[in-house]
Amino acid sequence: MQEATVAVEVQLPAQLREFVDGQTVIEGTGVTVGEVLRDIVGRYPALEEGLGLKGDDIPKYVNIYLDDEDIRYLDKFETSVSNGSQVVIMPAVAGG
Amino acid sequence: MTFAYKIPECQTSPSDFSTMGGLSHVYFAQTWFDRMIAHVIAGLPNEACGLFAGTGEQVETLYALTNADPTPQSYLVEPREHFQAFKDSREKGQELLGCFHSHVRSQAYPSMTDVRQAAYPDWAYVIVSLQEEVSVVRAFRIVDEQIREISILVKDISVEDTGSHVR
């Protein structure tokens, strides 16, 4: 049975808000985290570069959490979302 | 145990922040400051790192965290610990104000890597240089690859010493 598309709340960090008209929380729809993000990027194309999203890999310096779990430790972009899920995007804290 | 350190006088005028907004100072309780220094020394020979949270410009919680990219020239705050600190600070009614890391062999000034990877323009980036016997500590804002030093003030006040480690 095909999973249903749901609407999911995505929290963005301050430095990405310029790409989404200043919004801090934005809604995306899809069956998986990847679909939700593609939905948002479809409406705000500049966000793709802001997030560093290219291909199927999660960018090294971006952490994406679904309901408090890092999707790297779930099914990555194929992680299923459900009604009421919350996605949080947090750039890594790194340097040298 | 406390360690010797010095905080050079900040060379940035507060007016330099007129177009940047956000933090122009960061205040630490002595307890948190000492813990930060102890954490980066414990991380030798590699860089060490952590986060701090609070309200306004006052640090109220320090998170001494794991360096997930442990070398003498790199750090990466362990992502799950980063998220735990984010949640913990929110539950306390605080917000993450900044991060700290050590420079093992260089001065307390943002490296090119620090600047390129600075993802939080509102944060204070505290750098502890361990290249000399006495640690040198400075803080910066990094906005659009522009570096501005901000003042660090250490206050001898008591703090509730809880939740400083989330790992």
Describe the structure.
The complex is a heterodimer of chains A (96) and B (167). In chain A, strand 3 (62-66) and strand 4 (69-70) form a beta hairpin. Helices cover 18% and strands 28% of the residues of chain A. A 5-stranded mixed beta sheet of chain A has the order 2-1-5-3-4. Chain A has helices at residues 33-43, 46-51; strands at 6-11, 25-30, 62-66, 69-70, 86-91, 94-95. Chain A contains 2 helices and 6 strands, in the order ββααββββ. Chain A has one domain: Roll (Ubiquitin-like (UB roll)). With 96 residues, chain A is an alpha+beta fold. Chain B is of the alpha/beta class and 167 residues long. Chain B has a single domain (21-155), classed as Cytidine Deaminase, domain 2 (3-Layer(aba) Sandwich). Helix content of chain B is 19%, strand content 35%. Chain B has 3 helices and 9 strands, in the order E-E-H-E-E-E-H-E-H-E-E-E. In chain B, strands 1, 2, 3, 4, 6, 7, 8 and 9 form an 8-stranded mixed beta sheet that branches. Classes of the chains: A alpha+beta (96), B alpha/beta (167). The interface between A and B is medium-sized, with 17 and 28 residues. Strand 6 of chain A pairs antiparallel with strand 5 (75-76) of chain B, so a sheet runs across the interface.
Our estimate of the beta-strand percent of chain A is 25-35%
Q: What oligomeric state best describes the polypeptide chains here? A: heterodimer
What is the C-alpha radius of gyration of chain A, as a whole number of Å?
13 Å
Largest sheet of chain B: 8 strands, mixed
Number of domains of chain B: 1
- CATH class (first level) name of chain B: Alpha Beta
Provide the gyration radius of chain B in Å: 14 Å
Given the helix and strand composition of chain A, which structural class is it?
Answer: alpha+beta
CATH topology of chain A: Ubiquitin-like (UB roll)
The total of beta strands of chain B comes to 9
- As residue ranges, the low-confidence spans of chain B are none
Number of helices of chain A: 2
Ranges of chain A with pLDDT <50 over ≥5 residues?
none
Tertiary shape of chain B: globular
- Could you say which structural class the secondary elements and strand pairing of chain B correspond to? alpha/beta
What is the name of the CATH architecture of chain B? 3-Layer(aba) Sandwich
